[in-house]
Write a structure and sequence with these properties.
alpha+beta
Length: about 260
């Protein structure tokens, strides 16, 4: 960051730590993918990274347009109130709610008994002492029992972000291709700007690195290689091959 003081000042003072730092984010940080999304995009662009910037952006835009359209088609065919992934996660809770009973503590609070754990549910604030309802924003087993006793629709307790309507709205817009550069409508204040190429330092020796640097705690799993036949996935003691990996090779102490 010390090399880019203007960027550091912008992120710290104008944007704020809570907008880009996970440890400062004030909301719920459970069930949020971060690194996996980046890795998926890296794999998608592994063949396009050697292209120029404009060609790379065209590849990204074309891929995003395809993803958006496919997800829009899937969203329009949903008949259940929730998205498919949340619907499949929701129904097992209905099965587990059988055989449990509840007692009403006040107009909005219920004490659910039975099963391995008990729970106190507040259907107005959408909370439960088991904390599953609080974090996942999806009614837990206790909340389902309490909602049934209170004659409240279980789906009304689900976060709206899990509903079909929000899923459709998420992919409602269309991503259009930029088209030919001759058809661009460039404002005058942008057209007069002169953008200089970045300063290129002395190129390092050797082949440029294309793979990313592993994060802290990551390691590559080494495949087991047989010392007898040279094949993978088994050891020398369990090798059934009658040949050796050194057969046919000249001795190391003799010139080739």
């Amino acid at each position: 960051m010390h090399r880019y003081l203007r960027v550091a000042e912008y992120l710290e003072n104008e944007v704020g730590f809570e907008k880009w730092s996970r440890c400062h984010f004030p909301g719920l940080r459970n069930n949020i993918t971060t690194t996996n999304i980046v890795e998926s995009l890296n794999i998608m662009l592994v063949n396009a990274r050697d292209l120029s910037y404009i060609a790379l952006f065209d590849v990204i835009q074309e891929k995003m347009s395809k993803w958006w359209n496919n997800r829009r088609i899937v969203a329009m065919t949903i008949t259940a109130p929730l998205t498919p992934s949340r619907e499949s996660e929701f129904w097992p809770c209905f099965v587990q709610s059988n055989g449990r009973h509840t007692s009403q503590l006040n107009p909005v609070t219920y004490h659910v008994k039975g099963g391995e754990h008990e729970g106190v549910v507040d259907i107005f604030n959408k909370t439960c002492t088991c904390k599953e309802f609080d974090i996942d924003k999806l009614p837990c087993v206790h909340a389902i029992v309490a909602a049934h006793h209170a004659h409240v629709s279980v789906y009304s307790l689900v976060s709206p972000y899990y509903t079909k309507e929000y899923y459709v709205l998420a992919y409602n817009e269309t991503i259009y291709l930029v088209g030919s550069q001759s058809q661009w409508d460039v404002p005058d204040e942008v057209a007069v700007r002169v953008v200089l190429p970045r300063e290129v330092k002395d190129k390092k020796r050797g082949r440029p690195k294309t793979s990313r640097f592993p994060l802290a705690g990551e390691f590559k799993k080494q495949k087991n290689r047989c010392g007898k036949c040279g094949a993978y996935e088994h050891y020398k003691k369990k090798c059934n091959s009658q040949t050796s990996s050194t057969e046919g090779n000249p001795p190391t102490d003799m010139p080739v």
